[in-house]
Amino acid sequence: MSTTYFSVLLLFLCLSLFTSLTTTIYSKPLTSPYLSSTTLFPNYQKMLKSFKIFIYKPNEALTFNSPAESLFYSSLQNCPFVTQNPEEAHLFFVPFRSTISMRSIGRVVKRHREELPYWNRTLGADHFYLSCAGLGYESDRNLVELKKNSVQISCFPASQGKFVPHKDIALPPVSTSHAPHAPDNKTTKFLGYFRQVKLKESSLINELVNDPNFLIESEPSDQLTYTMRLASSKFCLFEYGGDVSGIGEALSFGCVPVVITDRPIQDLPFMDVLRWQEIVVFVNNNGGAKELKRALGDTGGKRYEQMKGLGVKASQHFVWNELPQPLDSFHTVMYQLWLRRHTIRYARWG
Ligand SMILES: *[C@@H]1O[C@H](CO)[C@@H](O)[C@H](O)[C@H]1NC(C)=O
Ligand SMILES: *[C@@H]1O[C@H](CO)[C@@H](O)[C@H](O)[C@H]1NC(C)=O
């Protein structure tokens, strides 16, 4: 008798604890897309005033395979953070082209370590480099230090196993289109929109093709149509590992991005700036269309409106400009580098 009573009481307590927990999670209003806006903005201003970067001289003209790398490199060369005086630099950039072999990268590092004292000072920890696909592990000492100590700037998504979370940085994708402003007559027509750039076998997407709540299409005919799609869909679907170049545009048009993935993602751009969980819905693709619809159903009402609003705010960080603008992709990547300037500097000896 009394054990039954206690179990019922216990069950009741657990249930009320659970409901109060879930209600606090869901009813807490989301007010900022940032992990900490009180640190971000003052610290960003400090960066603008004092950040100094020394670029080693490359011994050849550099070319890059991806638009994100090219834009980053040209913006870096022309930005006011570059200094000719390595003594005042916070960080050092090691340039090399996209198609160079691993052996040649090793030789580049060896040359810098022999010619100037800065590499040996920290064994590369205050250095950074650009590699879209990311470097793997090698046995050459120069490459080991580069990979383990220096900050790698790769493209999002990075190759699996070639990205070190907390140290490395992912460049946000450059959108393939420049969408004009959202049309005024916007009405939500679709629950989810998926732009299929290359026909890829995806069972989850195939399950949705005939669902009238979803619009799955290959390249829309023109820019205005694409913009209309973003503006008239509640959610925009992206497959991690597939084409994610539209995430920034989806955010800016208020189409809440849904990232479908089969594993935890550790290489999101701006991971130490943005609260990704509050602007994007992450869905595991193992659950199929059912799980996707459940997740979208859970993201409704007030929470949906808040996510949408924060996403619009956050979208400025995903914009790449030929001439960098405040808080755009280039500057937000620079801010992430600025956060990584406090490296262990080995004491100079001798
Ligand atoms: C840095 O260290 C390496 C090997 O430890 C050495 O060969 C090189 O000359 C050093 N560089 C400088 C500038 O002293
Ligand atoms: C919205 O406006 C655009 C251009 O102004 C037009 O092409 C489109 O048909 C309109 N859509 C609706 C649903 O009225």
TrEMBL record:
Entry GO MF terms: glycosyltransferase activity
PANTHER family: EXOSTOSIN GT47 DOMAIN-CONTAINING PROTEIN, EXOSTOSIN HEPARAN SULFATE GLYCOSYLTRANSFERASE -RELATED
Coiled-coil ranges from the UniProt annotation: none
Record localization: Golgi apparatus membrane
Keyword Zinc attached: no
Protein topology in the membrane: Single-pass type II membrane protein
Transmembrane segments: none
Gene Ontology cellular-component annotations: Golgi membrane
Signal peptide: 1-24
InterPro entries, per the entry: Exostosin, Exostosin_GT47
Domain (Exostosin GT47): residue spans on this chain: 49-286
Family: Belongs to the glycosyltransferase 47 family.
Name of the protein in question: Exostosin GT47 domain-containing protein
Pfam families named among the record's database cross-references: Exostosin_GT47
Highest taxon above the source species: Eukaryota
Key words, A-Z: Glycosyltransferase, Golgi apparatus, Signal, Signal-anchor, Transferase, Transmembrane
Keyword Signal listed: yes
